[in-house]
Amino acid sequence: MQWSKFKDKDLVLSLAHGIKQKAKKFDRLRIMHVCGTHENAIARYALRDLLPNNIKLLAGPGCPVCVTSSKDIDAIINYGIKNDCTILTFGDMLRVKGSAYSLLSASKLGLYVKMVYGLDEAIYYAKQAKKDAIFFSVGFETTAAPVASIIKSVNLPENLSFFSVHKYTPNGVLELLKAGKLNIDALILPGHASIVSGLAPYEKVASSFNLPCVAAGFEPVDVLGAILMIINQLEDNICKVENEYERLLNYEGNKLAQKALNDIFDITDSIWRGLGIIKNSGFEFKKTYNYLNAKLKFNIPFSDSYTEEQKGCRCAEVILGTIEPPQCPMYAKICNPHNPVGPCMVSDEGTCRNWWEVKGDI
Amino acid sequence: MTFDKITMDHGSGGKLTLELIENIFKANAGLDSAILGDIAFTTDSHSITPLFFRGGDIGKLSVSGTMNDLLCVGAKPMYLSSAFIMEEGFLISDLKKIVQSMLSEAKSANVEIVCGDTKVIESNKGFYVNTSAIGKIIRPIDGSKIKEGDKIIATGNIGEHGFAILNERENLQLTSHLASDCAELTGLILPIIESDLEIHWMRDPTRGGLAMCLNELCYKRDFGVEVFEELVPISQEVLSISEMLGIEPYYSANEGKMVIVVPPKDASKILDLLHKHPLGKNASLIGEITKDHPQKVLLNLSYGTKRLLSMPIVEKMPRIC
């Protein structure tokens, strides 16, 4: 079959060789990426197997489904059932459990939930619905920006509102580092999300924590290229933000998308599943858009006491890179893609799901 | 896995479908058709959205799928029955188009449609077609002769039906050229069945795609499968849509392809025969049977690394971003 040049075999093997040679100087390097699509590419092309043993490639909190709080899932389920609303959201979100139910399993209790591919489709379904429709708006700046931009540009049906659980990657990473929760030597930055945010927000990450940061695309050449750039920085004893994904990403990011985000959302504190409240890491509607904010419009009640994780689930440790999926006792035994106990087994971006699919029950 | 209710995943063609057949229906899960002496018999029900799609419609699909199931066990398709369950309000003009497709596909397979049934149900309940067929066994192919070192052939580019349907059903507008590969394969496969070349196993890789088909090949057997990524035929269109959606082509359905297991001595001759037919022009040897990892399908990547091509459990969803 024909692959793009970013999958080129000779280039990939040459990069892997370069990494092996240069990595000899280091006892151990822990490199974390913060994008589920990176984990998907790494697993799919078995890129970890091309790295020497002293380089650990860790999956960080980069899957939007995995970091969505069970408290938010509980709230939307409870409200939807009690008030007979249509809940619209992405397919990946349907199977993630709150404290008791996922959106999908709650449909047996009477919740009407419809999978959509994007906000434009949600608008279409809301127009068909005769009752209130709530878009469970999930994802990092990659999805938050299109949502903001569509809100600005189209006439929304009056019965459609939004339950935003959007997260902002740079601040999430920064706060986790401040809290000492990430034991890493370097970061691979998310290519797609950075196309929106640009790379400036990561300068503080690189300088304050002495971490080489390289934004990368999602092909094998991108990931290995980023690792080599990181090693080069470490070799030269420098820590800066670099861009491997120059074909699509520029340092400033997408100004139009940033303006749309700034126009619609404020940056607020946000709950990340298993990690608690992270300061300035979420997107919430500005006051002028309160009429679109389902949490306020409908006064959706949140439970004060809730179980953040299913008992025994170690997803939080997986997304902090402290354990690998097989170290969780439930992995591949009672937790699998059909019956995901924890969120990391749900999405194609989830670390456990990716490991399960390409490594099985090892 | 145990369940108290049917879920959509039980119909996905993946592991749960297989378990349903084994645990509830008790049918012979290894074959697509029953071998009854010198007669093969099979049945299949069809529901699809949209009913009309680029490359076919539910009529063409219902005949081709059933013909291909007969071919899998080494039979020459002979006679077909059809049953329609139609919602009230269904357009007669659409029904005519569907029936015409069925007749055309049956003619292509040299098969006679000999009986049928019609039921009308309440409006908005859908349109379904069941087809059953019998064929004459030319020589039985049941998988019992599979050996280590046997070669695995795919008769053409994979993944086209699944992505074409997804593109149209969800109005993704990601590609304007991709069409379903929906086709009956009598003209392609019958000459091989009728030749003196050995065939150890055949299966049309429909729901669950190539990955499911290969997992079924080694399911509960004492051998495994090795596939070579660089040898799997995939069109540029499918690769592009696959990258866009984050779903690998190995998991996307096919409706006009066959996976054939043959002894090494006959592999190149069978490939030559396939290449002579338009539906087999992209046929490729994609892998082999191994004793190294029983019941597992390993994908050999071009970089020299390996990974599992797992049996799908849930329907693949496009990723969020």
Automatic annotation (TrEMBL), chain A:
GO terms for molecular function: 4 iron, 4 sulfur cluster binding; carbon monoxide binding; iron ion binding. Keywords: Iron, Metal-binding. One of its GO terms (biological process) is protein maturation. Transmembrane segments: none annotated. It comes from the Bacteria. InterPro entries: Hyd_form_HypD (IPR002780), HypD_1 (IPR042243), HypD_2_sf (IPR042244). Pfam families: HypD. Belongs to the HypD family. NCBIfam families: hypD (TIGR00075). This is [NiFe] hydrogenase metallocenter assembly protein HypD.
Automatic annotation (TrEMBL), chain B:
It holds the Pfam family AIRS_C. InterPro entries: HypE, PurM-like_C_dom, PurM-like_C_sf, PurM-like_N, PurM-like_N_sf. GO terms for biological process: protein maturation. Residues 147-296 form the PurM-like C-terminal domain. Transmembrane segments: none annotated. Residues 33-137 form the PurM-like N-terminal domain. PANTHER family: CARBAMOYL DEHYDRATASE HYPE, HYDROGENASE ISOENZYMES FORMATION PROTEIN HYPE. Belongs to the HypE family. This is [NiFe] hydrogenase metallocenter assembly protein HypE.
